[in-house]
Amino acid sequence: MRGALLAFGGTLLAGVIAIAYAQDIKPDRAIKYRQGALTTMAWHFGYLGAMAKGEMPYNKDEAIRRSAIVAEVSRLPWEGFTPGSDQGAPTKAKPEIWKEPGKFKELQTKLIDETGKLATVAKTGDEAAFKAQVGATGKACGNCHDDFRAK
Amino acid sequence: MRGALLAFGGTLLAGVIAIAYAQDIKPDRAIKYRQGALTTMAWHFGYLGAMAKGEMPYNKDEAIRRSAIVAEVSRLPWEGFTPGSDQGAPTKAKPEIWKEPGKFKELQTKLIDETGKLATVAKTGDEAAFKAQVGATGKACGNCHDDFRAK
Question: Which residues of A touch B50 (CB under 8 A)?
Fold first, then answer.
């Protein structure tokens, strides 16, 4: 009984500590984090877009490397849209993000799906298919920006 | 012969296009990219540091997930230290980065090694070893900041 109570106390304490750490994360840090992750993704996707548009030559190894990075990083920004971080630092995030979480989540999932496909198709070395998938991925970025990012 | 000349011309053209794209990347974009990647890494490492310091409870799954992200992202910032990007936007990057590329590279490699070890040890679930490796990884961050980041 005493052990159970102690264990229960420990679990409570752990929960309180976890909440305390999360609360320590101020909105400005969350905003900078998600912007950082999105900037990281955009940098690498920029090269893939340049290849797709013929602004730089297609290179299979680079396509593979940067697509894999984009696929990984596309999972990261979303945890930075913490409650209350609609303000606290300059941000283009629209309030709709917190009002329509289901729709926002759906568009995240769509992006992650498309970047996953991009990483897969890059490995095949099929240049035309790769370029088409860059287009589909760019569309997934844009769809979310249309609804949830201010101009 | 004509084919060889055409192929040579094509290679030259491809090289010129690639250089043109790289030159289009202005220093301020490179600076924002590398800061974005470093901010992304710091966000996730912050949770691991909080676990190691007891500011939040150790959680094996979270330790695995965030360590894997840190290991991946630790490879990314360095291509943002492009020639000429010692200025162009607010940056704490010291000029030494471009004067001592060998030493800078060595510290990048050290960090990538340590984050790789962190991702590996996180998977074992050995809490003490994980916490020790968080310390070793933090030291690798700090070593580079000491020499190459302004206060």
Answer: 21
